[in-house]
Specification:
Blueprint: E1 5-10, H1 17-28, E2 30-34, E3 57-60, E4 63-66, E5 69-72, H2 85-101, E6 105-110, H3 113-121, H4 132-138, H5 143-153, H6 155-160, H7 163-166, H8 169-179, E7 196-203, H9 206-222, H10 225-233, H11 238-243, H12 246-255, H13 261-285, E8 290-293, H14 297-323
Parallel strand pairs: 1-6, 1-7, 2-5, 2-6, 7-8
Antiparallel strand pairs: 3-4, 4-5
Helix pairs in contact: 2-3, 5-8, 9-13, 10-12, 12-13
């Protein structure tokens, strides 16, 4: 039986995940799958930080080629459209199977820990269809009332939400929608796919990552971040851009004259730092993850040995299975 295997690289923003993935893809004949909830949108290139500005990029239908390596998961949907974690699981599962069948190594890389956890261990909302009538009713409520309602229905879910999600009406409405569905009412008995995987986590001290994140933001501002958001505003409802948070939220508010550019950048840097802290919490929430400090040379050497050993063992296991 053909076995699906995948290498997964997770970590906060600016920890060098994509660069490492490209390097490993060249060594182990791999192809990359992006695990990022904003990079799925067409036109959200600079703000979502899809690639380094120094990279050689070729855009194709269904994938990009970055520095000679195929990356899937960019430009899956038009901006403004809904893309759920269930959509990601469907896309990622198909991509993993396809890449394995082509005798290559799938390398999933990104900073959306919820996507990784849901792909590997399952998701409670799989099979819960959109309730348009309920959504229409809930859309009239304030964020405060939405959170209060969720807390009444499912206090455990309400308490587990981070501060960003608590203020996001779209995510609150979806949480209420799911909370009102019983297991018997679900439309599918989804089970996560079996993937022989290795999860690598990249980290560093907060101050080190914060400084890199600040520099990366300044670089993107110089390279056209404001122009990108301005172009999107002409096609989309500003509320959707603001709901994305971070770069798209604060640049939109600046362009609408609701804050100065200087204030927007200060607030944005603060939000990015908070986002990095939240991303780091997933380093302990993902099962079996092996975490390495990117500023420690010995740990980086250990990282490379860990991946090499896992890859060799997986190939030997696959060969043994095929022979039998």
């Amino acid at each position: 039986m053909f076995k699906n295997k995948a290498l997964i690289i997770y970590g906060p923003t600016v920890t060098g995940k994509t660069a490492l993935a490209i390097k490993l893809a060249k060594i182990y004949n791999g192809e990359i799958i992006s695990v990022d909830s904003r990079q799925v949108y067409r036109g959200l290139d600079i703000g979502s930080g899809k690639v380094d500005f120094k990279s050689k990029v070729e855009k194709h239908t269904g994938y990009w080629i970055v520095d000679g390596i195929k990356i899937y998961g960019f430009d899956l949907v038009s901006p403004g459209k809904q893309f759920t974690v269930a959509d990601f699981i469907k896309f990622a599962t198909g991509s993993i199977i396809s890449i394995n069948k082509s005798k290559k190594l799938p390398i999933l890389v990104g900073g959306t820990g919820f996507y990784i956890k849901s792909l590997l261990y399952g998701l409670e909302s799989i099979g819960v269809k959109e309730n348009k009538k309920l959504r229409g009713q809930l859309s009239k409520l304030s964020v405060y009332d939405l959170y209060k309602k969720l807390k009444e229905i499912n206090p455990k879910k309400a308490q587990s939400m981070n501060e960003s999600d608590k203020k996001n009406p779209r995510r609150l409405i979806r949480a209420i929608e799911i909370a009102g569905i019983t297991h018997k009412q679900r439309t599918t008995n989804y089970k996560p796919p079996t993937i022989n995987h290795l999860i690598i986590g990249l980290t560093a001290e907060n101050n080190y990552i914060f400084k890199k994140a600040d520099n990366w933001l300044e670089e993107r501002l110089k390279r056209g971040l404001v122009t990108e958001v301005e172009s999107l505003r002409h096609k989309l409802n500003s509320d959707w851009l603001i709901s994305l948070g971070l770069e798209y939220k604060w640049v939109t508010l600046f362009l609408e004259g609701k804050t100065t550019k200087q204030e927007a950048i200060i607030r944005l840097k603060g939000d990015i730092h908070d986002f990095i802290r939240r991303q780091k919490t997933w380093l302990s929430q993902l099962k079996e993850i092996k975490v390495f400090n990117i500023t420690n040379k010995l740990e980086l050497e250990s990282l490379e040995k860990t991946i090499s050993l896992w890859y060799t063992q997986e190939n030997e296991r696959l060969q043994h299975t095929t022979e039998n």
